[in-house]
Backbone:
């Protein structure tokens, strides 16, 4: 069990030793996608970040129950419960049943995450599959005096709650400022207070997704689903709650309020948030015209992209920034990541070709220790990557015959790369998985080797230079000829 792990806790704004409430078991809940449209890159960064956390906790010996929900009902146009249900709007637009919309975009979401080689969560519950649990939680909140029914809807009483609990504990916002920046209630508004939010919404005659409840036919508000599902699968108190930083101010703030109003306990020990994405220094968004979908990034089919980049290149790019840091997309940055990723994978492919010596010019254990220290320090993947490139330097030096490595150190080196590159980062070599390319290159290298043996240096050089112009570099050594992408 790794006891050195330190997490950054949003509530305390400081790092704390990780002490799971039910060690060695860890409960982790991450707010999943709202599946009424294609998954966007911000979602992908969040799920890639928590995949890293999931993988490392498992690697460290914890038994992790990772719950990631699917929002398939009740997500409105505005955070203050205004507008129409997004699933109903999309269903009417595409002339489909709402659950057809859910199925279509859930499958698309899973397809994208498979391309990024993320592990599936332990449980992936849906909002529509837990209506009963949400209704029961709302009933308990009403019973405890923190919610009220109004004309078939139920609202959370923020003013009543704020007298006993810190409503803004997650963001440290000033409650008076929040009230001042919220519109006044008009005579037709059913809410008692300006910050009150819906737990249950009365269905309109045209509402497609609706369920019976003690307050009439309707559907749940956006926030209650996560409180209900996290409590069902992880208990009233669990270890880690995560999501994008855009969820902290409203969704996660209201989750804490609902859970405390129901059980009088704070739901999560650690609140972890991934930071925003920017494009050439400007925040990525559809309205700014600089937002692109994962598929557009892979194909390059977007005005801001000069070409496409592979899923592993994009994943490696994301891992080069700490999950709490802003991540800026640019063609230049992606180009650099692609070269770095290729260099890393080329070095890994050389490991089995290295020949051990009786002595060693290198020690690998300090690199392993530095990688573990970085991961224990709030999952600092950029520092780990820097250490991995020190290992790359060692591999290339030994392969070029400019240094020696012992069998023991070579075994450490192989374990380091396998553990961190594949098991913890979840990267995979997209080039070497292409067996057809490997077979063709093996044939070309054999032809070139024969040409050299026959002193046909013109053909040998033509093959070498031709491959180089296509981005493939040949490297001759005593053990034979190897290739890598440049």
Residues:
């Amino acid at each position: 069990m790794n006891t050195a792990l330190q997490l950054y806790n949003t509530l305390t704004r400081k790092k704390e030793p990780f002490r799971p409430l039910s060690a060695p078991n860890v409960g982790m809940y991450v707010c999943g996608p709202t599946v009424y449209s294609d998954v966007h890159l911000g979602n992908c960064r969040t799920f890639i970040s928590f995949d890293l956390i999931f993988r490392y906790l498992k690697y460290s010996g914890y038994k992790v129950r990772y719950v990631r929900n699917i929002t398939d009902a009740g997500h409105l146009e505005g955070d203050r419960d205004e507008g129409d249900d997004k699933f109903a709007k999309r269903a009417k637009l595409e002339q489909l049943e709402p659950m057809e919309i859910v199925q279509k975009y859930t499958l698309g979401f899973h397809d994208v995450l498979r391309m990024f080689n993320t592990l599936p969560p332990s449980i992936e519950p849906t909002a529509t599959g837990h209506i009963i649990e949400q209704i029961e939680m709302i009933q308990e909140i009403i019973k405890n005096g923190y919610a009220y029914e109004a004309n078939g809807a139920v609202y959370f009483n923020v003013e009543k709650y704020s007298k006993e609990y810190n409503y803004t504990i997650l963001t440290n916002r000033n409650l008076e400022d929040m009230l001042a920046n919220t519109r006044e209630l008009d005579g037709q508004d059913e809410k008692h207070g300006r910050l009150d939010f819906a737990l249950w919404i009365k269905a309109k005659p045209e509402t497609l997704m609706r369920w019976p409840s003690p307050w009439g036919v309707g559907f749940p508000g956006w926030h209650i689903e996560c409180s209900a599902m996290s409590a069902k699968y992880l208990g009233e108190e669990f270890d880690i709650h995560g999501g994008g930083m855009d969820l902290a101010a409203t969704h996660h703030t209201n989750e804490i309020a609902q859970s405390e109003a129901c059980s009088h306990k704070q739901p999560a020990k650690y609140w972890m948030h991934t930071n925003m994405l920017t494009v050439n220094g400007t925040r990525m968004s559809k309205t700014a015209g600089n937002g692109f979908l994962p598929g557009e990034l892979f194909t390059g089919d977007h005005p801001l992209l000069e070409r496409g980049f592979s899923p592993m290149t994009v994943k490696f790019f994301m891992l080069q920034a700490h999950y709490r840091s802003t991540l800026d997309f640019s063609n230049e940055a992606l180009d650099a990541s692609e070269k770095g990723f290729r260099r890393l994978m080329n070095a890994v492919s050389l490991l089995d070709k290295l020949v051990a010596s009786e002595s060693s010019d290198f020690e690998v254990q300090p690199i392993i220790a530095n990688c573990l220290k970085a991961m224990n320090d709030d999952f600092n993947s950029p520092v780990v990557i820097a250490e991995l490139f020190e290992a790359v330097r060692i591999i290339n030096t030994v392969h070029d015959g400019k240094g020696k490595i012992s069998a023991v150190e070579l075994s450490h080196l192989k374990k380091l790369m396998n553990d961190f590159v594949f098991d913890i980062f979840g990267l995979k070599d997209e080039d070497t998985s292409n067996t057809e390319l490997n077979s063709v290159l093996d044939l070309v290298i054999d032809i070139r080797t024969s040409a050299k043996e026959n002193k046909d240096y013109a053909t040998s050089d033509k093959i070498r230079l031709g491959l180089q112009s296509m981005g493939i570099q040949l490297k001759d050594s005593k053990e034979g000829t190897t290739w890598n992408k440049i």
The domain at 20-274 is CATH 3.40.50.620 (Rossmann fold). The chain is about 45% helix and 15% strand.
